């Protein structure tokens, strides 16, 4: 497994792994008809956008690491009552 693939499968560096997996499963189930999976793609895009904005805010504020860990993200999502995307 190459370095980039390992990073994508690491929960601490990829906050949208669940959404990514769901979109891949949808593609598999729909014989790769992308029109059938547009809701999954949109959810993934919204997830990436949300966490990218969090990462930028943390960088501006000097918080390290830039991306919250998986445990921190769970706490953040619990505090706001679930996923906002």
How does this model look, in words?
The protein has 85 residues and is mainly alpha-helical. The chain has one domain. It contains four helices and no strands. It has helices spanning 3-8, 17-29, 38-60, 70-79. The model has no long low-confidence stretch (mean pLDDT 93). Its main location: mitochondrion. Pfam families: COX6B (PF02297). This is Coiled-coil-helix-coiled-coil-helix domain-containing protein 7. One of its GO terms (biological process) is mitochondrial respiratory chain complex assembly.
Order of helices and strands: HHHH
Quaternary form: single chain
The helix/strand class is mainly alpha
Low-confidence stretches are none
The total strand number stands at 0
Total helical elements? 4
Strand content: under 5%
Our count of domains comes out at 1
Distance between the termini: 30 Å
**What gyration radius follows from the Cα positions, in whole Å?**
14 Å
State the shape: globular
Residues in helices, as a percent range:
55-70%
Biggest pleated sheet: none
On the 0 to 100 scale, the average pLDDT is: 93
Task: List descriptors.
85 residues; mainly alpha; 0% strand; globular; 4 helices; single chain
Structure summarized in a few sentences:
The chain is mainly alpha-helical and 85 residues long. Helices cover 61% and strands 0% of the residues.
What is the element layout, followed by pairings?
Layout: H1 3-8, H2 17-29, H3 38-60, H4 70-79
